[in-house]
Structure formats: structure tokens, C-alpha cells
Amino acid sequence: MHAYLVQLKFTQCVFDAGVYYRQGAYGMIYLTVYVDDIVIAAKPMDIQVVVQELGAKFALKDLGRVKHLLGMEINFIPGVIACLSQTACVERLATRFNMQNMKGVRSPQQHNERMPTTETNKARINSNKLPYRELIGSLQYVVACSRPDMACVVCALGRYNGAYTKDNYKMAQRAVRYMLNTNHVGLVYRPVERLLTLDAFSDADHAMYRDTSRSNTGFVLQLQGLTWMWRSKQQGRVTKNTCASELVTASACVDDLVWA
Q1: Which of 17, 203, 204, 227 could serve as a FRET partner for 242 with CA atoms 20 to 30 Å apart?
Q2: Which residues pair with residue 223 across a beta bridge?
Q3: What's the CA gap between 97 and 88, in Å, rounded?
Q4: Which residues contact 172 (CB under 8 A, 6 or more apart)?
């Protein structure tokens, strides 16, 4: 596939090997490849040309305008709006872990809740009856696709994968209950007619992790006011005060901004 796309004068993206692009007759053509799924973003006439070129080499099945991709629902009105959400994915996740009938909540964490220290009593950790790692892994996928609002809590819960308890599992359940209550939430993209703007927002929670005294870094990057990148993670060093933790966060934000 790669060799043929290069032959068709597509250029492989440096940052993502599954993304290709080239100049078409009516504008830029963007093509993504994931296993045997291909999505083409371009003007309709350019899309037809690419489909014909690919059809000359491979057996294709044209599924029309993309509506579902890798667990994401894509609602698109050309030139007006594009919405990415994971309503069905969240509902399947809740059903898989037998949480579909739980009452929804309005926040993923209790107000001012501090993350507990890691449990060291081997008798209390890693119960086979609790699918903790599977649940956190599923939540991480949802966060990566369309839910930056869940990044902080899921990142924090992921630290207990090696030594989780019933209390940790209850905290993860609350995150699912919040997602069930907000399963319509997603990312919205609209065309913006103004000068190109790139915005970055960063914040830190000083000494959020009590067992290491490390802070949490969080930031969001926006292009034309539209969110396209987000991250939440534990800082790699102990900072003396809030100001220092904010500077570490700002530095990490700028690093990713420059890389992108």
C-alpha cells in the first residue's frame, strides 16, 4: 500500500505514518490508512479520482461518507460542522463492565478529592474479581479519541494498574458514571474565517500524587479555537511550590507545541 501511494505522488506524514497527503486538482487531499480501512478527506471530485486510482490496484468497497471509525461517531455537514463523539463506545464499555444501570454523576471525581497513596498490603491489591486494568485501558482509548475532559482522572487512575484496590475500582466506576451522564459530549469543529491563531492552555495540580509528592501536568492546544491536542500526566520531578509546577507544565506544553 505504501509503495503504491508513493507511486501516486502521495507524501507520507512525518508525524503519523498512517497519514498521506498530496495536492489535488481542487485542493489538498488527505488520506489515512488503518489496517484495511481508508478515509479520504478532500473535495468530492478529488475523492473520485483517488478512489479510481486505488480501485485500479486493490479491490475496494466504497462505504460512502464516513459515519463510524474506530469506535468514533462522525457527524459531518460539509462546510458547516464536524462532530466527533463516542456515545455507542461508552455504552458498550459500560455494558462490558456491568455498569450500564448505574446512576450518572456530574463530575468524574469528588470535589477536592486527592488521589490515595499506592496500597502496599499484598492481601488488598490486584483482586482477580476486579477488571481494573481492562477498564482503565478502555477509558484511555476514549480519552485519546474525543474526551479531553477525562484525561486527568484517567491518567491518575492508570498509576494504580500495578497495585489496585476496591477503592481504586470505585473511583474508576465514578469516571464511567460521569461518561454515561455525558456520553453526548465530544469534539466540535467549525470553519473559522479569521487570521490563523494557535492557542495553548496549561495548568498544574501541585503535589497531586501524595506518595511521590509530584504534581500533575495538563494542557490543551487549539487551532482557530478548535481543540486538536491534549495531555495529562505526572511530572517527572518534585517541585517545591505551585509556581514551579506551573513552569514545568508550561515547558511541557511548549515542547509539544513546537513538535506539532
Answers
A1: 227
A2: 198, 226
A3: 14
A4: 132, 135, 136, 139, 157
